[in-house]
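TL;DR need structure tokens for one chain.
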Amino acid sequence: MRILFLGETYRADAITWIKGIEKESGLSIETKELFNNQSRAKRILEAFRFFWSLIFSSERYDLVLAERSTSYGFFSLAVKAKVRVVAQQGISDIWSTNALGRWIKSILQRIVYRNVDLIHAWGYVMTYAMLQSGAPPHRILVRPKGLDLSLFTFSKKAINEKRFTLIVTRSLFPIYNHDKILEALAIIREKGYDFECIMIGDGVESERLIEMTSHLNLDNNIKWLGRIDNDDLPEYLSQADIYLAFPDSEGVSASLFEAMACGAFPIVTDLPANRAFIAHGQNGLLANQGDVQDLANKIERFMMNPSKYRKGVVANRKYIDEYCNRDQNMRHFFEVYSTLVKEKSQCAE
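>> reply
TL;DR here they are.
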């Protein structure tokens, strides 16, 4: 079987998908992706070039896997393949800062969902947008990619109530609101709590956020590590008492699952995608979107009585063991892919 992956291969989600299927299939997956141009005009020109090259390529594949219905998912329709599988990346792939962009993406998504063979939803919260875009329900497969549980092991750490360790693992882009996290942590420090916050990831906000750290007098509390190898991430998560994520929007977050697996207590934005996994006050805390003071209050709420949430932390790991085992989930995915390829091959004979 010949498999092509279309997507940004540097992303942790993509690496998990590729490595998981390679392990289960015993095959090497070929990849193609766009250049990471910062200029919008160059990205558009590159997208046309990329699509054109796929149309006129003589390469043939049994299976093509594509991330994001409104970009690589649409490109997959140009690939000569027996079976096409697309994964929605967020709660909806129809996102843009302007109405025209949203309208164009809605058209692309409808075309994709009506023409691919399988649509991955990493959680049920994603299915609503899929169905609204005309996705046939029988083509939707709901299951997370999962984690390598031999790496993301549970840490039964003894919480030091005199000094807490927090961790943030999202990329340094505006949507993730690291600036608001820093402001909330400044409030916590002013209240007399002692803590260290490990910041993992890089992005366009890096320089501004590091300057902001100094401005808020948080240099002794914040440790900026930049991008690290994903295999090194569990070590840092296992050190953490609290996992923080405060984005404006969220899909099914692999970063949240990673934190839950390693025993870091989640404090995240109150969004539908997070409410699907977090019962507020039990296995995590939900902070009002964009509200710095509320985020600080939720951090303080945990710090005042961390032992209260021990059962929730243990329950998080139990959920991960049951539903987010990468080997089990990838084995199931490849079985489904193989069946679809076999059916298409038989129809072509």
